[in-house]
Amino acid sequence: MCDEPQAPALWETIAETLIADCKVFKVYREHNRHPVDGREGDFFIAQAPDWATVIAITEDGRFIMEEQYRMASKNLSWEFPGGVIEAGEDPCECAARELLEETGYRGDKALLMASLSSNPALFTNRSHCILIKNCKKVAGTQLDSNEEIRVKLFSRDELFELARSPQMHHALMFSCLCELMLREPQLLGVKL
Fold it and tell me: What is the pTM of this model?
Protein backbone atom coordinates (compact mmCIF):
# COMPACT_ATOMS: atom_id res chain seq x y z
CA MET A 1 0.00 0.00 0.00
CA CYS A 2 1.36 3.41 -1.00
CA ASP A 3 1.61 6.23 1.49
CA GLU A 4 -0.47 9.30 0.75
CA PRO A 5 1.81 12.26 -0.12
CA GLN A 6 1.88 15.02 2.47
CA ALA A 7 -0.03 18.19 1.61
CA PRO A 8 2.09 21.28 0.87
CA ALA A 9 2.61 23.63 3.81
CA LEU A 10 1.00 27.05 4.27
CA TRP A 11 3.81 29.59 4.07
CA GLU A 12 4.02 32.42 6.61
CA THR A 13 4.19 36.07 5.48
CA ILE A 14 7.03 37.80 7.36
CA ALA A 15 6.88 41.24 5.70
CA GLU A 16 4.82 43.03 3.09
CA THR A 17 5.87 46.14 1.14
CA LEU A 18 3.71 48.13 -1.27
CA ILE A 19 5.54 48.33 -4.60
CA ALA A 20 2.92 49.99 -6.83
CA ASP A 21 -0.60 51.37 -6.51
CA CYS A 22 -2.10 50.87 -9.96
CA LYS A 23 -5.64 52.17 -9.27
CA VAL A 24 -7.43 48.87 -10.02
CA PHE A 25 -4.89 46.77 -8.09
CA LYS A 26 -1.90 47.15 -5.77
CA VAL A 27 1.32 45.18 -6.10
CA TYR A 28 3.06 44.04 -2.91
CA ARG A 29 6.39 42.32 -2.32
CA GLU A 30 5.82 39.67 0.33
CA HIS A 31 8.68 38.02 2.15
CA ASN A 32 7.48 34.52 3.06
CA ARG A 33 8.89 31.61 5.06
CA HIS A 34 8.16 27.89 4.79
CA PRO A 35 6.93 26.74 8.25
CA VAL A 36 8.68 23.34 8.16
CA ASP A 37 12.08 23.72 6.49
CA GLY A 38 12.56 27.49 6.97
CA ARG A 39 13.08 28.40 3.30
CA GLU A 40 12.41 32.08 2.61
CA GLY A 41 11.72 34.07 -0.52
CA ASP A 42 10.21 37.21 -1.98
CA PHE A 43 6.96 36.91 -3.92
CA PHE A 44 5.01 39.59 -5.79
CA ILE A 45 1.29 39.60 -5.12
CA ALA A 46 -1.42 41.73 -6.77
CA GLN A 47 -4.23 42.73 -4.44
CA ALA A 48 -7.33 43.47 -6.47
CA PRO A 49 -11.02 43.83 -5.66
CA ASP A 50 -13.36 40.92 -6.22
CA TRP A 51 -15.18 40.69 -9.53
CA ALA A 52 -18.73 39.61 -10.43
CA THR A 53 -19.59 38.00 -13.77
CA VAL A 54 -23.26 37.52 -14.58
CA ILE A 55 -24.69 34.97 -16.96
CA ALA A 56 -27.91 36.75 -17.84
CA ILE A 57 -30.65 34.93 -19.74
CA THR A 58 -33.66 36.66 -21.26
CA GLU A 59 -37.25 35.49 -20.83
CA ASP A 60 -37.03 33.79 -24.24
CA GLY A 61 -33.80 31.93 -23.35
CA ARG A 62 -31.17 34.10 -25.05
CA PHE A 63 -27.84 34.97 -23.39
CA ILE A 64 -26.89 38.62 -22.94
CA MET A 65 -23.32 39.19 -24.10
CA GLU A 66 -21.18 42.26 -24.53
CA GLU A 67 -18.26 43.02 -26.77
CA GLN A 68 -15.61 45.49 -25.69
CA TYR A 69 -11.99 46.40 -26.29
CA ARG A 70 -9.54 45.07 -23.69
CA MET A 71 -6.39 47.14 -23.21
CA ALA A 72 -4.03 44.33 -22.17
CA SER A 73 -4.92 41.92 -25.00
CA LYS A 74 -5.22 44.80 -27.50
CA ASN A 75 -8.27 43.06 -28.88
CA LEU A 76 -12.05 42.95 -28.79
CA SER A 77 -13.54 40.43 -26.38
CA TRP A 78 -17.02 38.91 -26.12
CA GLU A 79 -17.91 38.53 -22.45
CA PHE A 80 -20.76 38.12 -20.01
CA PRO A 81 -21.64 41.39 -18.24
CA GLY A 82 -19.83 42.10 -14.99
CA GLY A 83 -17.54 44.34 -13.07
CA VAL A 84 -15.70 45.22 -9.89
CA ILE A 85 -17.50 44.65 -6.60
CA GLU A 86 -17.55 47.86 -4.57
CA ALA A 87 -16.33 47.77 -0.94
CA GLY A 88 -19.05 46.19 1.22
CA GLU A 89 -21.19 45.23 -1.80
CA ASP A 90 -22.67 41.75 -2.09
CA PRO A 91 -21.56 39.89 -5.28
CA CYS A 92 -25.19 39.29 -6.32
CA GLU A 93 -26.05 42.96 -5.85
CA CYS A 94 -23.02 43.91 -7.92
CA ALA A 95 -24.03 41.52 -10.69
CA ALA A 96 -27.56 42.97 -10.89
CA ARG A 97 -26.17 46.54 -10.82
CA GLU A 98 -23.57 45.87 -13.54
CA LEU A 99 -26.13 44.08 -15.72
CA LEU A 100 -28.48 47.07 -15.54
CA GLU A 101 -25.72 49.67 -16.05
CA GLU A 102 -24.00 47.91 -18.95
CA THR A 103 -26.98 46.42 -20.79
CA GLY A 104 -30.19 48.00 -19.49
CA TYR A 105 -31.54 44.55 -18.54
CA ARG A 106 -32.99 43.42 -15.22
CA GLY A 107 -34.18 39.95 -14.22
CA ASP A 108 -35.02 37.57 -11.39
CA LYS A 109 -33.10 37.43 -8.13
CA ALA A 110 -29.40 36.85 -8.73
CA LEU A 111 -28.08 33.39 -7.83
CA LEU A 112 -24.45 32.88 -6.79
CA MET A 113 -23.13 29.79 -8.60
CA ALA A 114 -19.47 29.92 -7.53
CA SER A 115 -16.66 32.03 -6.06
CA LEU A 116 -13.35 31.20 -7.73
CA SER A 117 -9.77 32.37 -7.35
CA SER A 118 -9.05 34.43 -10.46
CA ASN A 119 -5.35 33.53 -10.56
CA PRO A 120 -4.17 32.29 -7.14
CA ALA A 121 -0.50 32.41 -8.10
CA LEU A 122 -0.56 36.19 -8.53
CA PHE A 123 -3.88 37.77 -7.49
CA THR A 124 -5.69 37.83 -4.14
CA ASN A 125 -9.16 38.47 -5.55
CA ARG A 126 -12.05 36.14 -6.30
CA SER A 127 -14.33 35.99 -9.31
CA HIS A 128 -17.99 35.38 -8.49
CA CYS A 129 -20.14 33.61 -11.09
CA ILE A 130 -23.75 34.80 -10.91
CA LEU A 131 -26.87 33.63 -12.76
CA ILE A 132 -29.83 35.93 -13.47
CA LYS A 133 -32.79 34.49 -15.40
CA ASN A 134 -35.83 36.04 -17.07
CA CYS A 135 -34.12 39.29 -18.00
CA LYS A 136 -36.00 42.11 -19.74
CA LYS A 137 -34.80 45.37 -21.21
CA VAL A 138 -35.95 48.08 -18.78
CA ALA A 139 -33.55 50.99 -19.33
CA GLY A 140 -30.78 52.44 -21.40
CA THR A 141 -27.13 51.83 -20.55
CA GLN A 142 -25.12 53.89 -18.06
CA LEU A 143 -21.51 53.29 -19.05
CA ASP A 144 -18.37 54.53 -17.30
CA SER A 145 -16.40 57.22 -19.14
CA ASN A 146 -13.95 54.73 -20.69
CA GLU A 147 -16.45 51.97 -21.47
CA GLU A 148 -17.61 51.26 -25.00
CA ILE A 149 -19.80 48.18 -25.09
CA ARG A 150 -21.84 46.47 -27.79
CA VAL A 151 -24.67 44.35 -26.33
CA LYS A 152 -26.00 41.40 -28.29
CA LEU A 153 -28.33 38.50 -27.49
CA PHE A 154 -27.18 34.98 -28.39
CA SER A 155 -29.19 31.78 -28.60
CA ARG A 156 -27.71 28.76 -26.83
CA ASP A 157 -26.31 27.43 -30.13
CA GLU A 158 -24.88 30.84 -31.02
CA LEU A 159 -23.26 31.05 -27.57
CA PHE A 160 -21.54 27.69 -28.08
CA GLU A 161 -20.40 28.80 -31.54
CA LEU A 162 -19.04 32.03 -30.04
CA ALA A 163 -17.26 30.10 -27.26
CA ARG A 164 -15.49 27.97 -29.89
CA SER A 165 -14.33 31.05 -31.78
CA PRO A 166 -11.29 33.24 -31.03
CA GLN A 167 -13.67 36.15 -30.35
CA MET A 168 -14.42 34.79 -26.86
CA HIS A 169 -11.06 34.38 -25.14
CA HIS A 170 -11.49 35.63 -21.55
CA ALA A 171 -10.72 32.72 -19.20
CA LEU A 172 -13.04 33.95 -16.44
CA MET A 173 -15.97 33.84 -18.88
CA PHE A 174 -15.22 30.20 -19.61
CA SER A 175 -15.07 29.37 -15.91
CA CYS A 176 -18.56 30.85 -15.43
CA LEU A 177 -19.84 29.00 -18.50
CA CYS A 178 -18.45 25.76 -17.01
CA GLU A 179 -20.16 26.52 -13.68
CA LEU A 180 -23.46 27.00 -15.50
CA MET A 181 -22.93 23.73 -17.34
CA LEU A 182 -22.31 21.88 -14.07
CA ARG A 183 -25.08 23.52 -12.01
CA GLU A 184 -27.83 24.20 -14.56
CA PRO A 185 -27.07 21.94 -17.56
CA GLN A 186 -30.67 22.12 -18.80
CA LEU A 187 -30.20 25.84 -19.56
CA LEU A 188 -27.50 24.87 -22.04
CA GLY A 189 -29.22 21.75 -23.33
CA VAL A 190 -26.42 19.60 -21.92
CA LYS A 191 -26.79 16.18 -20.33
CA LEU A 192 -24.08 15.32 -17.81
Answer: 0.91
